[in-house]
Amino acid sequence: MRILAAMSGGVDSAVAAARAVEAGHEVVGVHLALSRAGGTLRTGSRGCCTIEDAMDARRAADKLGIPFYVWDFSERFREDVIADFVSEYQAGRTPNPCMRCNEKIKFAALLERAIELGFDAVCTGHYANLVDGEGGLELHRAADNAKDQSYVLGVLTAEQLAHTYFPLGSTPTKALVRAEAAERGLTVAQKPDSHDICFIPDGDTKGWLAEKVGTATGDIVDREGNVVGSHEGAHAYTVGQRRGLHLGIPAADGKPRFVLEVRPVSNTVIVGPKEALATALIEGARYSWAGAAPVESEFRCHVQIRAHAEPVPALAVLSDGAVTVTPDEPLDGVAPGQTAVLYLGTRVLGQFTIDRTESAVPVG
Q1: pLDDT of residue 47 exceeding 80
Q2: What pLDDT is stored for residue 238 in this prediction?
Q3: pTM here?
Q4: Which segments carry the region annotation Interaction with tRNA (predicted)?
Q5: Residue 243's domain is classified under what CATH number?
Q6: Is 148 a member of any domain?
């Protein structure tokens, strides 16, 4: 096959490209330039799209003896990922930019261009597996549960899966990938993993949002409507947050309080006890299936609401253009805007963006 290897500059994508070459495929490496303000180098292990990363990717491609290109996707990234991130926070939701990047950039814009240029598939260093099932190609968890990335790939469709290649999915541990990179002479063998949001490399999401949308003083209130503090912008808060509230009035029971809800229209943040974060139901109308869609409109599954959260047994119901999921036990601290990924065993069934939640602990 003709394979376009997306090379981030990290060890995973470098080894994935190497395995594609070793498997006999015709491989071309490409690094995505996602920012036009690329004059800064990586600090520590934050980010994944710096000039330093592009240079690391080029060195890996040279070592593998494959052609290498840098493609400018900065405008598409700005519109589909960064602008979406800002607007979601302004609407009081908690977005996942990595999900949007996979959906809109790596497996939409990149894959579209790859197919136009005659490539059969895009290869990445994600830890996930593709399996031929009765209903067609299926997306499954990786062998290494600690590194499994099937959650952030839950946005992929059947058509996209048909043109995707994940060489690392069956590797038992990340340590083996690093050892293989060293054996192959790849200089990124011990390069730290990237983390945090790549376009906020210093990790200060609150400060970054304040620069983008400004500040506006508002109230922090408890579930009964009593003002217990103030803030400089509701967009800087997310459901489940405890740190940085600086409440002027302590709770009657002396226990910590957490963000329960963000109301952007009134610029209000609602806080309450930890037990009030328990969520009995989630619902969303923006959903997709990673392969064949469920046959029944009501089915048992597991639901996962964060990349490294434990999956929870649940009942899913498709009705009136939306997916409603009722977990067997309450979910903890779910925010609108988060992505819920549905599993059947190790298989990813699909995903939806959470629009509505219902608390398991009513007021009063």
Answers
A1: no
A2: 87
A3: 0.89
A4: 147-149
A5: 2.30.30
A6: no
